[in-house]
Structures are given as C-alpha cells and as structure tokens.
# Entry
Amino acid sequence: MMTVAFTAMPTTDAAHLWNGGTDAYGRIPEVQVSAGAGYPCRHCLRNIDEGEELLVLAYRPFPGLQPYAETGPIFLHKTPCRRYVAEEILPPILSSPDYILRGYGSDNRIVYGSGAVTPTERIKARAEELLSRPDIAYVHVRSARNNCFQCRIDRVEAPSFAGAALAI
# Structure
C-alpha cells in the first residue's frame, strides 16, 4: 500500500541561505518583514508571522539545470526554523482554495498531462493518483495563482504484512 509524504525544502538548502549563501540566481536573498498572511516558509511549511523577518529568494527545487528545472520566488524565515516533520498531513501553508499539482519523472522533467489545478481538500487524493503511475517519481505543489513552489509530495511504500504470521 502506498501513502504520500509532504516534503519541505531540505535543511541543507535552507542552512546555505541562512549562512549567507546565494540563491538559484547567485544573488544574496532580500530581507523583508512579514506583513502577515501570505508569506509561507518553504522549510517549516508554516506562514511567517507578522513582524518577523524573512528571506525572499529564487529557488530551484531540482538537482541540476535542464529545461524543466523551474526557478521561482519563495520565502524562508530569516532565522533558522525547524523543518516540517508531520509529512503525512497537509502542511499549514496550504490554506488557499486550490493549488497546481504536477508530476515529474525520475529524470526531473514534467510528465505532460499530469498538471492540474486541484482543490486543497483533494491534494492528497490527487497526489496518490499521480504517484500510482510508474512514470511519475514525485509531485510538486505550486500556487494556482503565481505558480510558486510550495512543497514536494513523495511516494511512501507502507510495509506489507500480507502472509506474515503474528507471534503471540
């Protein structure tokens, strides 16, 4: 049986930026102050509270450059935050009515025909549908209005207990 995991930006990527590193365009991230809702941190997958400092930067959630390696703006807490760990449940930042879900192959390229605007309450079910396909390795959740990367969804194979004897 398959389940899904909502995967945040890797801590190594966030730590690089927190320690003064450059973004996907080789630029130092901009520092801004949150005005409240609308600033989702891609590491803890929570909204950045009003008055908190944040980094605005270009992010490319792919291992290398290629034509399908989309790069776009994201937000990150300016000070280190704990990476999202409740991978089995919908992250708190996913509070809009809908998002784009798009499948990618093991070559990190878009699987054509897999992208669709999906109501938030159907994200998990749609991700399970996409990840049941052998040509889709992972799914991105992106803003339906701005196409910004929110998080990744990965396939998790649940252990099979079929045919296992229970020891009493």
